[in-house]
Write a structure and sequence with these properties.
It is a single chain. By secondary structure, the chain is mainly alpha-helical. The protein has 10 helices and 5 strands, in the order E-H-H-E-H-H-E-H-H-E-H-E-H-H-H. The radius of gyration is 15 Å and the shape is globular. The two termini are 29 Å apart.
Length: 161
């Protein structure tokens, strides 16, 4: 299974000490160079920076379809544009995205996507995460991950908590 990730799922999971869930669920993830730059270069010293540089299961990919990236940049930031182009280029099975605009574009492009909260629900379904509530609380408090109270409750309900 080929899974491409944008920046935010990696940073947020690293912030709460749960980045390894991606490896446990997907085995490996691919990130384009722009995502690597956002995390490891621009975010040096921040959560996720060291991990994307040294974890062998996080694979870097240089996108070759620059004209597609340029078109996507009209609507998205560099990481999102390259992540979508990378997913198309590699015929990815899944792309990890949290931002609404990027999800809308992914949908138009026919890409299957999931967000960080979906990853947590899947981890719990696979019994790799005993409870979601503490991770949701850490995401809000430590990572500054924004979610409405209604969404928080929906995720808990989906996880059976």
């Amino acid at each position: 299974m080929i899974v491409v990730s944008n920046t935010s799922p990696i940073i947020n999971l690293a912030c709460v000490g749960q980045l390894d869930l991606l490896r446990q669920i997907h085995g490996a993830i691919t990130i384009p160079e722009a995502v690597f730059t956002e995390i490891a270069v621009n975010g040096i010293g921040q959560p996720g920076a060291e991990e994307v540089s040294r974890f062998p299961w996080i694979v870097r990919h240089r996108v070759t379809q620059q004209p597609l990236v340029d078109v996507l940049r009209l609507e998205l930031d560099a990481g999102e544009a390259e992540a979508l182009a990378c997913a198309l280029e590699l015929h990815a099975d899944l792309i990890l995205l949290d931002e609404r605009r990027a999800r809308e574009v992914a949908q138009r492009l026919g890409l299957r996507f999931i967000g960080l909260l979906g990853v947590l629900i899947e981890a719990q379904r696979q019994q790799r995460l005993p409870r979601i509530r503490p991770v949701l609380d850490d995401l809000r408090q430590k990572a500054g991950f924004w979610m409405t109270d209604a969404l928080y409750q929906r995720v808990l309900a989906a996880a059976g908590e």
